[in-house]
Design brief:
The chain is an alpha/beta fold. Helix content is about 45%, strand content about 15%. The strands form 2 sheets. The protein has a 7-stranded parallel beta sheet with strand order 3-2-1-4-5-6-8, sandwiched between helices. Strands 7-9 form a two-stranded parallel ribbon. α4 runs parallel beside α5. It starts with a strand and ends with a helix.
Length: about 280
Amino acid sequence: MSVVVTGATGHLGRLVVEELLAAGHPADRITAAGRDAGRLAALAERGVATARIDFEDPASLKAAFEGAGTVLLVSGSEIGRRVEQHRNAIEAARAAGVGHLVYTSAPRATTTSLVLAPEHKATEEILTASGLAYTILRNGWYHENYEQQLHQARETGAVVASVGEGRVASAARRDYAAAAAVVLRDPAKHVGAVHELSGDSAWTLDELAAALTEVLGREVAARNVTPEEHLAELTGAGLDEGTARFVVALDGNTRDGELAGTNGELARLIGRPTTPLVESLRALV
């Protein structure tokens, strides 16, 4: 079964290719696709085929997808432009005769108030109406999303957020990549499936501070502030207001429990427990 992985120049896509190789999927049956051909060179050296694609260039997508049994559409990073970009990829897959498309979405994309969800919801609707066989991987939060907080804690001895008592059931990026590889290796078992994926345990801001204390070897305090205080601190530190409001909105989603779900599905899919938070934080030091 030939597999195309989009976003292979990014963190998740590259890890999916590595997980496929580690599981014994033939390198010459994998195409790593991304916008920067130079960043695909390391995978090409391992025998993986490569293709330059651009989500806003349908011809490049169709050419990369020709002959593929399965395509992994790793959601794009350009917030506000992703619906049309994803539509281009789905239509190109259909035009190329792809047998199965796997999409990385967001937690409970069709029902959540998560600020990032609307583009994922729209993409899921396009995909389910496309006529393609599909699988949706609703990836939860990544441990690696907290790299900036780690640097902040190293410098200041504190981690600041407006999450209240909200919990986050994050997992390592590699855990989600392993799940994608499981589906890509045998997509027929997952036709029509919507997998809600998250870490085995959900932690609070206090627990994040404790994990950072352990990793950094210095006391890290949790500072839980109001949304208004958080916005003022972020803009005061030089963050533009639009981005600052987005960060505060995400913390509001956490406060409301939108990232707290722990159904165990990710661990079941990959056949092992998800990676502990402290282990991923340690790898970022």
